[in-house]
Amino acid ABC transporter ATP-binding protein (Gluconacetobacter johannae), 241 residues
Amino acid sequence: MIEVRNLQKSYGDFAVLRNVSFSVARGEKIVILGPSGSGKSTLIRCFNRIEPHDAGEIVIDGERIDQTTELTRLRCTVGMVFQNYNLFPHLSVLENCALPPRVVKKAGREAAEDLAMNFLHRVNIADQARKYPIQLSGGQQQRVAIARALCMQPSVMLFDEPTAALDPEAVSGVADIMASLSADGMTTLCVTHEMGFARRIADRIIFMDQGRILESAPPEDFFTRPRTDRARDFLSQMIRY
C-alpha cells in the first residue's frame, strides 16, 4: 500500500528525515516509536503533504506523491487524526463530521449526515451527535475526530499521538477502533509515546532516532529483544517512567 524510498526532509541545516525507506502492506497497522525530535510526526505528515519532502519517493496505492499531486484528492485517500482533535467548536458533532463530505465531495446535506451518523455509530459516539465539542470529554472528542476523518472514506489513516492525555479507558477505546479499521482492510500508521498501546495495536513497530529508522520488527520482538543499544535505552527510560 505504501512504499517509502530514501525520504529526506530538512528545516534549514537541520535534517529531520535522513534517507528513510520502508514499506507498508495493505491493512497493516504500523506504530512509529522514538524519542521526541526523532522525525516521527514529520514522517507521517509527508504522506498527505502537510509537510512536503525534499528528496526521495513516496508511493501510495501505486501513485507517486510529490509537488504535482492534487492535494484534495490525496487527502481523501489519506486521512489524518491529530493530537488536538481540531474540531470546530461552533458546530455540533454531527455537523463536524458531515462538513468534509459536503465541502470536498459536494455531497448533499442528508447524504452527508447519513454518512456521518454511520461513522459516529462505528466509533460508539452517535448518542452525542447533537452536542458541541466543549460538552464532550477528551476521549469522546477523539472518537469524533476519528469519525470525521472516516467520513472521507480514506484507504490510509494517519494517527499523530491519538491517545495523548486520555485516560486508560479512553485509550482502550481508541485501540479497539483502530483494530476494527484494520480488520476491514484499512492501512494505519500511528505515532505514539504510549508503550502499552503500541504493543497492543501494532502489527509492526518502526523505531526512529535522529531522522533514521533503526529497527523494524513485530511488537513482541521489539519490546522483548530490541536489536540496537539505542532502542534498549529508549525502552528502559519509557518503562521506568
Residues 88-154 form one domain.
